[in-house]
């Protein structure tokens, strides 16, 4: 067992002052049977805790650290920017620079606004869609996470495509009733809902590659159906690419699947590890945002110079490496091939999913296409696997519903070590029923 003595003490202290001892719930390692490692520092593909354990990191701050931790060029750019002050609350030319850059990579984003988190991006995109269409209802898919905005913390009970019920305490029934929920990848259920309610629906929001029920890519025809039905009913189609943007391909899921959404939300990578996100899309929709239009949305720290600097530098570094996304896709494929072989050797049924540099595994006999399938995977085997990997210094997300991320900093040697660790971890998982 690795020594987590200092982390354990730090966790006890933190719990006195913060709910669960953390500032975001999954960090508390619920159900994993060990305290979360408290982090000291991270460099490249490695992360080190306060007990001095160093791990190979496949969490990457939940997605942003696509270049690896503490990338020298990004750090230098942030340091230089910080010397010119950390915030002005006034326009800078670099905000236009990042908006142009994003428009180049995502041509469907004609105009955009920066915010501080993915949550704000999706909340604001929905408000814009409601303002633009004059409609109240929205439609989301079960198991898709779009941040913690009230109207998005709703999922259907037992997969029924009916009025949502609140998924979180504190979300009012009034809010929940305007959120319709349909199972992900279920084209007939979606089409039926649009037939019935399409003309009342302001927006359909989707993770075009789902990454919050572990990694679940869209089935053939799913995104096409979303585009077709939303067009038919004058509903705004919002791609939440906060996670899959720059990862499934550099140009996002919209490029991989050749679908032009009306609006897109970006986050994670575009802040280079600092708090930044954006929403944008068709000009006529974005013209509804204040001060041009009547949809109010603002932010004291929006377009923060440090966050924008880190974002621009991260994107530029990615763009400077030819086939950046393909290189990461290949590393990811190599890793998963090794994990699958380890599972086969141990006799553990395993489903591996990947989309570019996002990936995940399910301890399941059958393929996983939606939230219901994801919930049916073996949680006890996941826990045994997770703990064994942690003990072998491999840092994975402490939940079977989280996606893992490859970075450019992961070396062939890292991947080889991780596969070796998987051999043992799959044997541990095999002991669990
Ligand atoms: C992470 C995530 C969000 C929320 O972003 P925060 O910055 O955590 O608020 C929204 N949508 C998707 C798809 C995400 O993965």
From TrEMBL:
Functional pathway: Porphyrin-containing compound metabolism; protoporphyrin-IX biosynthesis; 5-aminolevulinate from L-glutamyl-tRNA(Glu): step 2/2
Which InterPro entries does the UniProt record give? 4pyrrol_synth_GluAld_NH2Trfase, Aminotrans_3, PyrdxlP-dep_Trfase, PyrdxlP-dep_Trfase_major, PyrdxlP-dep_Trfase_small
Please list which residues make up the signal peptide. Answer: none
Q: Which reactions fall under this protein's catalytic activity?
A: (S)-4-amino-5-oxopentanoate = 5-aminolevulinate
Which cell locations does it reside in? Cytoplasm
**HAMAP family assigned to the protein according to its UniProt record, in alphabetical order:** HemL_aminotrans_3 (MF_00375)
PANTHER family from the entry? GLUTAMATE-1-SEMIALDEHYDE 2,1-AMINOMUTASE, GLUTAMATE-1-SEMIALDEHYDE 2,1-AMINOMUTASE 1, CHLOROPLASTIC-RELATED
- The name this protein carries in UniProt is Glutamate-1-semialdehyde 2,1-aminomutase
């Amino acid at each position: 067992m690795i020594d987590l003595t200092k982390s354990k003490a730090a966790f006890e202290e933190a719990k006195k002052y913060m709910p669960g001892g953390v500032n975001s719930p999954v960090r508390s390692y619920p159900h994993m049977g060990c305290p979360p490692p408290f982090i000291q520092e991270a460099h490249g593909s490695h992360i080190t805790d306060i007990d001095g354990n160093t791990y190979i990191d496949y969490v990457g701050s939940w997605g942003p650290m696509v270049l690896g931790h503490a990338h020298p060029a990004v750090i230098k750019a942030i340091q230089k920017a910080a010397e010119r002050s950390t915030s002005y609350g006034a326009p800078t030319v670099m905000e236009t620079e990042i908006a142009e850059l994003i428009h180049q990579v995502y041509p469907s984003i004609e105009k955009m606004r920066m915010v501080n988190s993915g949550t704000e991006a999706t909340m604001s995109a929905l408000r814009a869609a409601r303002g633009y269409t004059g409609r109240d209802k929205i439609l989301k898919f079960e198991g898709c996470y779009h941040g913690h905005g009230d109207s998005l913390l709703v999922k259907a009970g037992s997969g029924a495509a009916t009025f949502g019920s609140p998924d979180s305490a504190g979300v009012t029934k009034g809010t929940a009733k305007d959120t319709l929920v349909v199972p992900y990848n279920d084209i007939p259920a979606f089409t039926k809902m649009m037939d019935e309610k399409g003309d009342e629906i302001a927006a359909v929001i989707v993770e075009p590659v789902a990454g919050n029920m572990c990694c679940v890519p869209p089935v053939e025809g799913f995104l096409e159906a979303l585009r077709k039905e939303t067009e038919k009913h004058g509903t705004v189609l919002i791609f939440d690419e906060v996670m899959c943007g720059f990862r499934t391909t550099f140009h996002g899921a919209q490029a991989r699947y050749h679908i032009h959404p009306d609006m897109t939300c970006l986050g994670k990578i575009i802040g280079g590890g600092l708090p930044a996100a954006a929403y944008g899309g068709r000009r006529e929709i974005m013209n509804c945002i204040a001060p041009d239009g009547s949809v109010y949305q603002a932010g004291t720290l929006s377009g923060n110079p440090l966050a924008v600097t880190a974002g621009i530098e991260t994107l530029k570094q990615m763009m400077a490496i030819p086939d950046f996304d393909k290189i990461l896709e290949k590393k990811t494929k190599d890793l998963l091939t090794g994990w699958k072989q380890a599972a086969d050797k141990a006799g553990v049924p395993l489903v591996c999913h990947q989309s570019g540099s996002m990936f995940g595994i399910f301890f399941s006999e059958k393929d996983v296409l939606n939230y219901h399938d994801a919930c049916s995977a073996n949680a006890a085997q996941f826990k045994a696997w997770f703990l064994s990997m942690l003990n072998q210094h491999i840092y994975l997300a402490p939940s079977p519903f989280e996606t893992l991320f490859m970075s450019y900093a992961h070396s062939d040697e890292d991947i080889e070590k991780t596969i070796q660790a998987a051999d043992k971890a799959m044997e541990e998982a095999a002991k669990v029923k």
